[in-house]
Amino acid sequence: MARFSSIAVTIFGWKHHKWLCKLTLLDRILCLGGYWIMSEPPIIWQTHLMSWGRTGEELNSEQSAIEAVAKSLCWKKLKQKGDFGIWPKPTNHIHCKKNRKIFKKLSLCKA
Is 111 among the domain residues? Predict the structure, then answer.
């Protein structure tokens, strides 16, 4: 059973496309192995599309962009069901970062 030692539930809006800064900040403050749980637009757009007055394409695009940023931070979506999406923060980013092109020219410090 998973231990929830650190959970971040977002309460800020994503419509203004500040998700890159918000997820980067969340990555900094969330403990290693912690969980980010999202239960707001755009993650639940398929269920609540009509009540928001926005197009499905717009919301799907936002969700795809958020997931791309999460992937760049080495997060993998654990589950999306109903009104929730759950991403665990990795306990170690080194393996992921070594495989990304941006880090091929940079050497990571040894502890």
Answer: no
Nearest to 79 by CA among 39, 46, 42, 50: 39
- In degrees and rounded to multiples of 5, residue 8 shows phi and psi of -120, 125
Range of the domain at 66: 7-103
User: pLDDT in tens for each of the 111 residues of the chain?
Assistant: 444 445 555 544 555 456 677 788 888 888 888 888 887 766 766 666 666 677 778 777 878 888 888 888 888 889 988 778 888 988 887 777 666 655 445 454 554
Residue 1 maps to a domain: no
Which pair of tokens denotes residue 59? Answer: 């919301």
Tokens coding 66 = 């958020």
